[in-house]
Amino acid sequence: GGRGSAGEGERQRAGGRGSEGDDHSARVRRVADELDVVCDTLTDAALAERFGYLSFEPGMVGFHQPHTAGHVSPRAQVRAQVLAAERHGATVIDQVVRRVRASADHVAVRLASGAVFRGRKVLVATGGFSIVEDLLPRPLDITVCARTIVLAELVDADIERLRRMPSVIYRPHDATHGCYLLPPIRYPDGRWYLKIGGRTDDHALSSLADLQEWFRGTGDAGTAQQLIDRLHTVVPKLRPAAMYTDSCVTTHTPTGHVYADRLDGGPLGVLIGGNGSAAKSADELGRLGALMMRHDRWTYDIPSDRFT
Question: What whole-number distance in Å separates Cα of residue 21 and Cα of residue 60?
């Protein structure tokens, strides 16, 4: 996921990149086949022919999903989800929660204002802010990583040159040089940006104070320079009008899967730990959490032990 102002345009679109014979490449192909997703497999020559404005290492295999793919705007996504919830009878209370505790017959949610709401069941889906002290009855085994992203402001010539560019997930032979790229997107300020991010920094955050300090800043300068270098490698001849950096966080679990579980089997549930993929999977993760809370037995089509 991405944060508000500069996170606009956080999205994933078709495709993965990997070396020939890579296990990841095989998994991408298998999943595409199992789900009947139209996904073209491209060798070096085909990649160069179809995406001549991009540059990948030799020996890559590409997967391009030309249909039913696109990108997600976090602002628009949240607006749509909140509106859908309200239309189905939800009451939205836009306030800060400080503490959630379960008792024998209800769950109490204490707000920063001191007010308390009670419900028969409560689902907590607080992302990186799940590490806030005393929010939950006990801490979860999660790691919240500080991430830096770079936005390249595009000039008219590059907007036109890259207008057919898909979103890209790039996995070169050296995985530490991987990244994701978003195509030219017009942001709320009216300007067009190309966004790059990737797991170049593993700075862990451990408290609310850490989160607040990180989000008030513009990321890490050293990481930003690495991302800028990668951007110029993958998108040659790019001539941005300006470069901007911003902060983001991702929340990780030891299993690599989201936690979708009831604490001690009771009425308090958690849906936490998107492992960097929560934004594009948000609707389905929400459905998973809703099913878990609505039914006293597990009804999802993937076994519950994947999410404990």
Answer: 10
Residue appearing with tokens 């996904």: 39
Residue ranges of the alpha helices (H) in 163-220? 208-216
Which position has the token pair 């705007």? 73
Q: What is the CA radius of gyration of the chain?
A: 21
Angle at 196 between CA 193 and CA 201, to 5 degrees: 140
Q: How many CB atoms lie within 10 A of CB 165?
A: 18
| pLDDT tens digits for range 265-303 | 999 999 999 999 898 899 999 999 999 999 989 999 999
φ, ψ of residue 113 to 5 degrees: the values are -75, -15
The whole-model pTM stands at 0.87
The rounded distance, in Å, linking the Cα atoms of 102 and 269 is 10
DSSP 97-118: EEEEEE-SS-EEEEETTS-EEE
